Amino acid sequence: WEQVTYAVTFDNTQIAVPHGETIGPLPEITADGLTFTGWYFLNGEPATEDTIVTSDLIIYAKWTPVAYTVTLDPNGGTVSQSQFKVYFGETYGKFPTPVREGYRFHGWQYKSKVITQHVTVNDPKDHTLTAVWVKEPPILPVLLVLLTLSVIGGTTSILLLLKRKKRKKSR
Known about the structure:
Blueprint: E1 5-10, E2 13-18, E3 34-40, E4 46-47, E5 57-65, E6 67-73, E7 83-87, E8 103-110, E9 113-115, E10 127-135, E11 142-151, E12 154-163
Parallel strand pairs: 1-5, 6-10
Antiparallel strand pairs: 1-2, 3-4, 3-5, 6-7, 8-9, 8-10, 11-12
């Protein structure tokens, strides 16, 4: 008489379990940005160490993503929302756009990498994104003058654009 054994497969591991015996202790596993919530069968039923084996079984790890807080550092500007939640392995999603007088917003940065709404969160911890700014060129004061001249037989108009020159500082 030969005892029948079945293959129980989980997490790329296969064990042989005799017919009618329990699975036995299942490993606790970890993954960045995820919380392991247990072992399950494809039909959604939980697998435990007390599960009795009567056929080959495949068991899947069930995970819950961990929420992380992203802080937005406006880097000298202002932003309408300073924090939001993200999940490891998912995209950041939409960001608020900060403002800063005399600068144009160029994007968000984390660890010297540009972060957009389409970038996948790959750092499993709370982190800060910093606004990157490009200084706008100064706007020179100008004066528009419409000059209308009366000449024999009619009038003529000339539009003049006058730029103010910067004065040199006296010593």
